[in-house]
Amino acid sequence: MNELIRGLLFLPEQLSEHARAVDQLHFFIITTTMVAAAGVFATAIYFFVRYRRRSETDVTPHVTPTAIHEVLFIGVPLFFFLLWFAIGFPLYVNLQSPPPGAMDVYVQGKKWMWKFAYPGGPNSLDVLRVPAGRPVRLLITSRDVIHSFFAPALRLKQDALPGRYTQTWFTADRPGTYEIFCAEFCGIGHSAMLGRLVVMPADEFDAWLAEQRRGLAQAQDAAPGPGEAVLSASNLVAEGQRVAAAQGCLKCHSVDGSRHIGPTWVDLYLRREKLKGGEIVVVDEAYLTKSMMDPGAQLVDGYQNVMPTFQGKLSPPEAAAIVEYIKSLKTPAVRSGPSEGPAYESIPRK
Ligand code: CUA
Question: Which residue has the higher pLDDT, 59 or 95?
Fold first, then answer.
């Protein structure tokens, strides 16, 4: 049945559990609405004939629907819409909740190409290699305008925003080569902004990654240039430390846990911070990058809004390097911040 409807709708193959679940909901909605539309159409045709005007003196009677009709008209559509919500919402939550231990890949959209970078190297252009059967988390950003990462076989689409990291994740079922598109009109090269998703058997992927990193280690003597080449440096953390010092971040943020002009970076990642308005946020990649680009937007309670924006000053790879640096600043035993247990389940714990 699944294959039949998929074929009828010309949909690409389903590469993940998520893709199958999305399709099932899609098929359910489309079948229900088609049946309802056919019913409405058939009723209309029947009424045209049954209640046609038979003579010049015919008067259309005024019909008032009974309570039971009202209940059916409102209740039946409402039931289906709520049912679709009840099925779709857990799917959405799942999509926002990468499993712990997922492999991170940084994705950068740029007019008009996709760049992929693995922490620890290597990086690649337009080709995203992932292992089959293992969860992969994508941290997505853009260097210029809004793009949208779209992998039809995974039923996955996520906007790539300049100055922000958005995330999504997937576990690809089986090896093969699949398409990656940009799904946000981003200029004249939009339709050519194509990528390939290459799913490899897990052991082959491990061998490929090790091989790539050996090559990078040998090429280490060649110092990485600023910005562009940063992600190919085998150590994002060291690069983040360098950029943070060069940009003056460390004049206000301590890396020893002490309070300064801004919050300390030690144990900052995944900390629950209270904002000025009393709202609690979890410091994840999205919050960190947002705070670099728009520092006043979600100000931590007890601090002044004095940080300048780094929008345009930090390239996406530099912002990513600083995020990785902040993530590395952990005290093993001591946990700072309110200890109310895990923030919420969807935040991956390292
Ligand atoms: Cu990038 Cu469309």
Answer: 95
